[in-house]
Design a protein that fits this description.
single chain, 363 residues, alpha/beta, Aspartate Aminotransferase, domain 1, Aspartate Aminotransferase, domain 2, 2 domains, seven-stranded mixed beta sheet, four-stranded antiparallel beta sheet, 13 helices, 13 strands, globular
């Protein structure tokens, strides 16, 4: 007797695997594998979250009016063009659900966010991976891959896991050269960390387009990863479409109020940004001094190239660090077997990691 038969593409679907968080024999390892905030959430966000504990019997505001208003005020954008979700991952999946039919194509760069092929294939789409250049998205490679079946292009900017970025002019060049019926998704999860003058997260492009969706998250700078809060911004036609197909009450009330409080905690935000700017430079210099090769990053993590030598390889470094209670991200399944991705931690964690890596390289 056979049971229900799932759609054929689901059987081959990968499951997203997050950064490792446990090490056998280590009670409290230092987790630097998931690009999380080294400081946790802001005190104001925690306070707002806890206050909602007495009202858990009430349904959330299904339209998250106050959260939309807070985002609109902070970024000077239209509140009714904002859609919120269970992390920005949900917004990516909503885009695929809305605009893909089976065998439609979705383009993205290799060495980019692992959710893109998962979101694509979960709705029967065909994932089209194009080569990057020096770990940076290449606009010409994307344009060359477009066919009459292309419906979505995903751009992680800054890119995860490489930390590189596309300038505003390159993003606009891509947009101007794609057909109007293709949705360009600018995944700007790490936008808050970028200090380069030639970078924009996507707000300006959304405001002059009919085919651009920008996505953002509260998981990184704001330290609300456990609450799974993300948002998207697009023209009314796109935002209304995504709003129609999202689940009702998809953002819980405690999550909404914590998000609003985080947006308003300017002191915490400035502190987190300053810390990241400082330690990006220090870690880059220290890694280079050891003979390692960090990929230039504008985010809150660094992708580090290790020698192609079994005693000094990324795999060997990963094992060494794990034995000492430090978890980085080794990504051989993404074609990055010679690399470890390091999330910037607290000052104490960063200094300890530098010391461990020095000992590993000198052994």
């Amino acid at each position: 007797m056979s049971g229900p038969i799932a759609r054929p593409w689901i059987e081959k679907l990968d499951i997203y695997v997050g950064g490792k968080s446990h090490v056998e024999g280590i009670e409290k390892p230092v987790k630097l594998s998931s690009n999380e905030s080294p400081f946790g959430p802001s005190p104001k966000a925690m306070e707002a979250y806890l206050k909602e504990a007495t009202a858990l019997h009430r349904y959330p505001d299904a339209c998250y009016h106050d959260l939309r208003a807070a985002l609109a005020k902070k970024y000077d954008i239209e509140a009714d063009q904002i859609v919120c979700g269970i992390g920005s991952d949900e917004i990516l999946k909503l885009a695929c659900r809305a605009y893909l039919e089976p065998n439609d194509e979705v383009i993205f760069s290799n060495h980019s966010f692992m959710m893109y092929p998962i979101a694509t294939r979960s709705y029967g789409g065909i994932a089209v991976e194009v080569d990057d250049e020096n770990f940076t998205t290449n606009v010409d490679h994307i344009l060359a891959a477009i066919t009459n079946r292309t419906k979505i292009i995903f751009i992680a900017n800054p890119n995860n896991p490489t930390g590189t970025y596309l300038s505003t002019s390159e993003v606009e060049r891509l947009w101007k050269n794609i057909p109007d019926n293709i949705l360009l998704v600018l995944d700007s999860a790490y936008a808050e960390f970028v200090t380069e003058d030639d970078y924009q997260a996507g707000i300006e492009l959304v405001q002059k387009s009919k085919n651009v969706l920008m996505t953002r998250t509260f998981s990184k700078l704001y330290g609300l990863a456990a609450l799974r809060l993300g948002w998207g911004y697009a023209c009314p036609e796109i935002s209304n479409t995504l709003d129609k197909i999202r689940d009702p009450f998809n953002v819980p009330t405690p999550t909404q109020v914590a998000g609003i409080a985080a947006l308003n905690d300017i002191a915490f935000e400035k502190m987190a940004k300053s810390h990241n700017i400082k330690w990006l430079e220090i870690l880059k210099n220290e890694l280079c001094a050891m003979g390692l090769e960090p990929v230039p990053s504008v985010a809150n993590f660094i992708l580090i190239h290790f020698p192609d030598h079994k005693n000094k390889s990324a795999e060997a470094a990963n094992e060494y660090l794990l034995k000492h209670g430090y978890i980085l991200r080794w990504l051989p399944k993404q074609g990055l077997s010679h690399y470890l991705r390091l999330t910037i931690g607290t000052e104490e964690q960063n200094l300890a990691l530098i010391d461990l890596l020095k000992k590993f390289m000198e052994t």
